[in-house]
Amino acid sequence: MRASVLLGLLALAGCEDPLTLAKVCDETPGFCSDLNKDSHCKEQRAEVIIQRYVEYKSPTDENKYQLLKDFEKYDQCVSLAAKIEHIKLKEKTTSRVEGHLTSIKEMTRIFQDTKNTNHPGLLYYHWSRNNDQSALTKLLALEEKQDKRVTEDAEMQFFLASYYVKFDDEKTIDLLYKTLELNKAGETPNPEIYPTLVSLFYKHEKYKHAYTFARVAQLSGYENVDILPIEHQLAAIGKSLDSLDDLAQKTYDSIQAGTFVSPRGF
Questions:
Q1: Rounded distance, CA 51 to CA 71, Å?
Q2: List of residues 6+ apart from 31 with CB closer than 8 A
Q3: 16 exposure class (CB count in 10 Å sphere: 0-12, 13-18, 19+)
Q4: Over the stretch 143-167, which tens digit does the pLDDT of each residue have?
Q5: CB atoms within 10 A of CB 189
Q6: Which InterPro entries does its entry note (predicted)?
Q7: Residue 256: Cβ-neighbour burial (10 angstroms; 0-12, 13-18, 19+)
Q8: pTM (2 d.p.)
Q9: Measuring CA to CA, how many Å separate 91 from each of 48, 69, 247?
Q10: Predicted confidence (pLDDT) per residue in 81-124, tens digit
Q11: Which helix (H) or strand (E) holds 250?
Q12: Best CA proximity match to 173, nearest among 222, 210, 211
């Protein structure tokens, strides 16, 4: 979907014909030749190729950020695929290793290019991937100033939650709620939101909250949530689960519809 959007944007920007992978590889063959050659990681590879072209044509911090994320996803896929041994087709394994090395080189380039950035996403990546404390300081300053690139962006709210979870539970819950509030209809929020909320609520003995979000996690297809201990705690105080199941369904539906509101009252 994202590649299709980029193609449309590039076409509107003045390209005579919609951009295709074949066209990118013909015009800038280096964007394709140093990635894996087989069918593994096809979607991630396509997104990297298109975004490499976009960043090449318009090297903004936002385009570098999108390329960095695309390379990270591609590298996670191709690194796993590179471990698969081919007895008869050794070159496939070799091309996957090449794709992995290209990812490292390109991500390093982007980090070098954006050392002085003020882009919130890049600042988070500089801190979380490279332990750059100055980048974290800049990011927290943007949060303090209520910069809308931070406060009105679901991804950034989740990123901040991953920082505050180490020492401020209430702040983390606020940020995770805001992340869900900012989730648009048809989009899927980061699945790690739910187990984090469940863990925090269980820690603070808010078992109704913990159960509700454990059920939301299940409705979202998240399987690695242990709901049984929560059920035992609720049973011990004689709490019926039926009303909480209804609440969980309504909460899930509101998240999917993009109408979720922080449930501070339940």
A1: 9
A2: 24, 25, 49, 52, 53, 56
A3: exposed
A4: 999 999 999 999 999 999 999 999 9
A5: 20
A6: DUF2989
A7: middle
A8: 0.86
A9: 21, 27, 54
A10: 777 555 455 555 688 889 999 999 999 999 999 999 999 999 99
A11: helix 242-257
A12: 210
